[in-house]
Every structure is written in structure tokens, then in C-alpha cells.
Design a protein that fits this description.
This protein is mostly helical.
Length: about 260
Amino acid sequence: MALPGLFARCPAGRGLLLAAVLGIQAGGAAVAAPAAAEAAYERSRHYRGLSGEVVDPLRARDELLRAASAQHLAAQVDLGFLYLNGMGPVGKDLDAAFRWLSLAARRGAPAAACVLGDFFRQGLGGAPRDPAQAVRWDRRMAGSNEACAPRAQFELYRAYWTGEGVARHVPTAMRWLKMSAEAGNPRAQRALGRAYDRGEGVSRDDGLARLWLRKSREGIAPHDDHDHDLPSLAGPRLFEKLAPFYPGRATNLAATP
């Protein structure tokens, strides 16, 4: 018997055929959606001058928004940093920055998770001021292999030293400070040098004080001193210096802190 006749006489057969057709269509749509998002993301890179000399911040933003809305993780990260730093006619928008970076961080993007603690620590954008939440994000990144780990370690030192968002515990504070200093963070190195000089949290040691204060000066020009006293939101400028936007890289971070 011919197959059309079989499906015509058998309602169940017609149902199977319809399901198969719909399945093929759905599968094609699933493939098309990520492809369209990736194409939009690549166009945004073009308009940001990353694949040529064309720079059009407004079109870059529109393409990023198109890709980010389609769940493109790197686009969500880049869009968050675009709103965080601003770019020409695209002004800073901390509410939008927090919304996109928070979404990307919870999906596992390290670059977004690196700065989320700053939003909660200072109550920026749409984030409530929540020092405990900031500590949770800092703790997560402090134990990672990401470039922001030393900065997160330094923020944990400050949290444990002041009791902001966590119970005050000087030994834990100093452990994080030493870890950050040993990782090369100039702010931590200077703070550790001063701690040894004053005997705060550690035994007074003139030799170690000079050592860490000298290390904090390595590679730092005199006029750069003020950079190390900026609030921690200066941290995202690291990505701004490295590239117009930090490429999102997903890792197996937990969904929530």
C-alpha cells in the first residue's frame, strides 16, 4: 500500500506525519535563532571598529541589543559594559548596565560576575545596596582564575576588616589582603605595606613594610597614585583598557550566589 494511502486511512499516521513536519520546522527555527543572534553580534563588533575602521556606537548598540535579547551571552556582557562605560552618543545607563550584567553573570559570564559586587556594594543602577550580596559575588570571583580575582580578594579584605556585609574578622581580612598582594594588586600591596608599618592586623615589621610598599610602586608612574584610591567601580575600567568590550566567556559558575 502507498504511504499516502496509509496516512489517509490512519488518523494516528496523519498525526505522526504532522508532528514530524512541525518537529523539522521547530528544529530549523532553533538553529536559525542562534545564527541570527551571532550575525547580529558580529555586526555589532563591526560597528564598534573591532573588525575594521567603521565606528557607529548607535548601530553597535542596536545590534548588541538584538543579539542580547536572543540570549547571546557575549552580547549581554558587551551590552552591559557599553551601558556601564558609555560610548560616544550612547550615554551611560547604570540601570541598563546592571540589568544586562546581572543576567549575564547568573548565566555564568565571568566578566559580568567580576563587577556585579560593585553594584551591590554601592547600590548602583537598579541594584539595592546589599553588602552581603556584594561579598557573595566577590567571594565567588576571589577563588577563580579570572583576571579580576585579585581585586575581589582585596574587596573581601575590606569587607572583613570593616565588617561590611560580613562579621568582622581581622585574621580573615589579612589572609585575603596577603592573597591579593601576592597576586600583584598594587592597592593590596600598598595596604599590606602600611599594615606592616603600623602593626595593624599583623606584627610590625619594617622590612616587610618597605618590601610591600616598594612592590606597590613597581610599574606605577607617580601621577597614577590616585588610581589606587578610587572606589572599586574603577575595576571595570580594566576591561575598557584591554578592549572596547570584554568578550563574554561562560564558565560553570553557579546560577545564584
